[in-house]
Amino acid sequence: MKIKICEKYPENRLFCLDLLRGIDMMLLLCFGSLVHAINRAVDGGLPKALMNQITHASWEGFQLWDIIMPLFIFMCGAAVPFALTKRLKDGRFTLDYWKHVGTRFVVLWVLGMCVQGNLSTYSAKYINYFSNTLQTIAIGYVIAALILPIKSRIIRLIPAIGVFVIYALLLHFGGDYSRSGNLAIKVDKAVFSLLVPETHGMMTESKYAWILPSFMYAGMTLFGMESAKLLIDNTISKWRRANILIAAAFTLLALGYLLSFIIPVIKPIFTPSFTLLAIGWSMLSLAILFILTDILNFRYGMSIPILFGQYALFAYVTAHIFGGIYYSISAFFTNGISHLPESGLKLYMSKEWVEVIRRIIAISAMTYILAIRRALEKLR
Q: In terms of pTM, does the model score above 0.90?
């Protein structure tokens, strides 16, 4: 199936927005597992500096892998002006507007429970009620929906900045920044203890805080929304839009770096310093891609990332829920026939390289499913 979706792109969409979202999804769903498989297959492994970037910082620090979740939240915020503006009536809320927002919130929350919340166990012993990126996006989506109709950019930025100040003060004066002493995790355990017993996974296994960091999820979503609103503002030249976004990105990166001397950069509790750095890098990436693809119109070879970007939620959910199917498809082509022990690619290469081939086939199968999804949509 030929994927040809970059040449005549819809004028009501930002190419860079879908591209960055697609790169983020491919980094999570394709690149990481493949690199780890290659690392196991190569004698001596891949360079340690590379592998460090394909893992999360254990507590403090900022590595490439740490940007995936906040970038996803940021990009969902950037999609808000496209998804919700058309549902306003003369710039005002309507009942249909809030029906859409409410439905979206519920769907994202339930999907988050399906993906990483053990919802399919149907047992209160195992279900995690708040444990996934999709639920953080649901929170940010509602906040962005409230702020979107405000016409003044300055007024819209007040709550975006305010959540950082509130969260920073709460964290700084509510505890320390250790794993056990920070306020964010203490609040989670206090609230979750009302819902589940002390032995539940939400109390013992979670590596992240979720409730208080909702301030930061909202902040990331609002900055994503403002970034998109800037890039589609036709009253400003495209180059000026790009320059403003780049300047804002470097400002936030500088603020995040300076704040890190007071508040450590910690992803599991989304400290304000970490979040500022994450938003700064997200803005800078979006601005660079805006210049490359929406100003200079360089779009060669980007069809597959765009495909993942247009159907990011579909790709994310299906990869987590049906990932075993993709992997089973790859096993058919690599493992040989079960009742014939001397068959399969293991006859010609090590099991580690067989695993690399399996990963490539699984990624190809996922891409093909997305292409079919797009083809079916175009038939409607």
A: yes
